[in-house]
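Q: Given only this backbone (310 positions), what sequence would you predict?
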């Protein structure tokens, strides 16, 4: 009998991290689809040995600590989810943002190669400026508009050529703070919401991304990959759809423009940054579900007692 694959997960307490740890353990996470098996294989409970690390366990800005941790645990694969994700705060906290997103990722890449492990690092649609006018493919030129996006692009460039980089966008999990929880809370309390209808992107369900990452842990493809749920949308459409699922009428959500946001966000967002997943599908991996079905799953799981962590 072969020994389990050792997987070190950074950012394991985040909304993707908790779902990934469950999935690697053979458990369908809250809001997950047990039938979604991109590579056509189920996950056995003893297939992976998981070392789940939060920022309390490992400071990825400390290169010596990263090297010591990786050399001590000797994983086969590192899935790097830890990140500085406060997009607006990063505009006035650039050094801290780069220390986590760029330097931290470089340290993990160096450590992975030091022990012969494969690194899978998560990046973002915010590496693009939104001016293409259609969905972005992996070969498109990056041109980030904000500090967060620039730090993630720097991280991509600091990775080794055979590392795997997964770009994703608009992530929503049952166990995590995200826009969908805000929408649901206001819908259920009788309030209304206003969301922009001039920013287009792709929604990614944390549970679906977690299962996709398991496929990449197994196959270690290397290079750049775009991974997101099917279909493009706007934040207004997400709010309107979620409201309808929760029984609210069309008056629940009002569309506004980015210029109408008050206070104005510190960081510029790309107007259109939807990600094409044709490369993923060309690998003969099953496409992730349409975003609407994923939102329904998330809302149903939330109603059953799931919800954002503190």
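A: Predicted residues:
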């Amino acid at each position: 009998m072969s020994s389990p694959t050792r997987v070190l997960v950074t950012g394991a307490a985040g909304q993707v991290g908790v779902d990934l740890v469950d999935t690697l353990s053979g458990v369908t996470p809250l809001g997950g689809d047990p039938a979604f098996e991109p590579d056509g294989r189920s996950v056995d409970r003893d297939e992976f040995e998981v070392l789940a690390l939060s920022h309390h366990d490992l400071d990825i800005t400390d290169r010596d600590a990263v090297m010591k941790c990786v050399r001590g645990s000797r994983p086969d694969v590192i899935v790097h989810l830890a990140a500085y994700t406060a997009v607006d705060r990063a505009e006035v906290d650039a050094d801290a943002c780069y220390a986590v997103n760029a330097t931290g990722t470089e340290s993990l890449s160096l450590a992975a190669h030091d022990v012969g492990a494969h690194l899978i690092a998560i990046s973002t649609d915010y590496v693009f400026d939104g001016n293409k006018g259609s969905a972005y493919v992996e070969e498109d030129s990056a041109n980030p508009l904000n500090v967060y996006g620039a730090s993630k692009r720097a991280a991509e460039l600091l990775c080794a050529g055979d590392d795997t980089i997964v770009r994703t966008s608009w992530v929503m999990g049952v166990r995590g703070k995200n826009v969908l929880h805000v929408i649901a809370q206001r819908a259920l309390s009788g309030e209304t919401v206003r969301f922009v209808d001039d920013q287009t992107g792709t929604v990614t369900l944390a549970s679906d991304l977690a299962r996709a990452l398991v496929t990449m842990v197994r196959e270690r493809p290397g290079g750049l990959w775009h991974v997101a749920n099917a279909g493009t949308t706007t934040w207004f459409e997400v709010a309107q759809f979620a409201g309808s699922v929760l029984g609210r009428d069309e008056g629940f959500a009002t569309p506004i423009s980015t210029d109408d946001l008050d206070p104005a966000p510190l960081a510029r967002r790309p107007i259109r940054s939807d990600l094409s997943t044709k490369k993923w599908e060309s690998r003969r991996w099953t496409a992730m579900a349409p975003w609407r079905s994923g939102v329904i799953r998330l809302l149903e799981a939330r109603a059953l007692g799931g919800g954002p962590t503190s």
